[in-house]
Amino acid sequence: MASYLAGEIDEYLLPLLSRADRMSMSHGVEMRLPFLDMDIIKFALNLPLDKKLNLSNSKIILRDIGKNRLSKKLLTRPKVGFTVDYAKRYLEELNITILENLEQYIDSKIVIEYLKDKNQYHKILRLYSLDKILGALI
């Protein structure tokens, strides 16, 4: 199991981190990964296996550290993905119906309506950003 976990670093984690780094940097976002500090990784790799995982729990050490600081509800809740769609909320607040600077290239009203129907607010946000950049250049 220890060999498997160490192999996961090379075969799973490194490609994932490389892709995440390229994606975040292409959008000007800096990722923070405090648990990927080399000293923490070395420490974790050298821990006995029973301190890392068991059949019913993951993140045993973190849960143990937090047991006196965090609520039982928080410590025992299942893992869930990030579900909040900030792009949608942000764009709904702005109530964007047209992108004036992009109008000479596309019918932005139709594009916005189409992307809203497809629930692709992140793409509308990219177009909105591009529209603002074009506006600043003109």
Describe the structure.
By secondary structure, the protein is mainly α. It folds into two domains: 2-76, no CATH class; 86-137, no CATH class. Helix content is 59%, strand content 0%. 4% of the residues are buried.
Structural class: mainly alpha
The biggest beta sheet, please?
Answer: none
In oligomeric terms, what are we looking at? single chain
Percent range for β-strand residues:
under 5%
Question: What integer value in Å does the Rg equal?
Answer: 22 Å
Compute the average pLDDT.
84
Give a summary of the structure in a few sentences.
The protein has helices at about 1-25, 40-45, 60-65, 70-75, 85-95, 110-115, 120-135. The chain is mainly alpha-helical and about 140 residues long.
Write the layout of secondary structure elements.
Blueprint: H1 2-26, H2 38-45, H3 60-66, H4 72-76, H5 86-94, H6 108-117, H7 121-137
Properties at a glance:
7 helices
